[in-house]
Amino acid sequence: MTKIGYIVGSISSTSINRTLAEAVVKLAPEGVEFVEIPIKDLPFYSPDYDADFPQEGKDFKAAIEAVDGVLIVTPEYNRSIPGVLKNAIEWSARPYGQMSLSRKPVAVLGGSQGGIATAAAQQHLKAVLSHVDAIVMGQPEGFIQLTPGLIDENREITNEGTKAFLQSYLDTFLGLVARVEKANS
After folding, report:
1. How far apart, in whole angstroms, are the C-alpha atoms of residue 115 and residue 105?
2. Kind and range of the H or E element at 146?
């Protein structure tokens, strides 16, 4: 069983990126389990915590370490990543030398109502992930324009072209996860 964690880069109760993440999870093939790795309860990171990590930080790091790969589905805030997502990555990388995302396959996806979706945020996020030694999937890139009705109330993707793209995206990511797992065994 392949276990993939997913992180939604928004803590909004009406996040369209949560909707997108839930729709992608429904595309998982047999033998793949998705689990959410929540970020909303993480306090603001400070080096003051390094000597005595709070339970929320320990649980977050353990959740990352327990999965075979991580899918991050994020919005774009002010042409970059949301502060809560950056904060989560800080927690994953601390204390120094204990980076939970190190050598972990990570894919980045995002959606917005605009035409360029989350392109700037994803570029920033990929740079940050590279610094914490994640194995970041480069292609395909997933900039999804979430038009009204694209994902229905059951989290089903209604556009066949978008559904086929996201299935291919997920298959490519799972291929990366399998290659990394094989290389590490």
Report:
1. 28
2. none
**Of 65, 62, 69, 76, the residue nearest 17 (C-alpha):** 76
Over the stretch 16-59, which tens digit does the pLDDT of each residue have?
999 999 999 999 999 999 999 999 999 999 999 999 999 999 99
Element (H, E) at 98: none
Q: Identify the pLDDT of residue 30.
A: 96
State the angle between helix axes of 83-92 and 119-131 in degrees (0 to 180), rounded to the nearest 10.
20
- Here the tokens at position 125 are 């996020």
Q: Distance of alpha carbon 79 from its chain centroid, rounded?
A: 18
Beta strands 142-145 and 135-136, pairing class: unpaired
The number of residues in the chain equals: 185
Which H or E run includes 55?
A: helix 55-65
DSSP strand pairing (135-136 vs 69-73): unpaired
Within 8 A by CB and 6+ apart from 150, the residues are 144, 157, 158, 159, 162
Question: Per-residue confidence at 126, pLDDT binned at 50, 70, 90?
Answer: very high
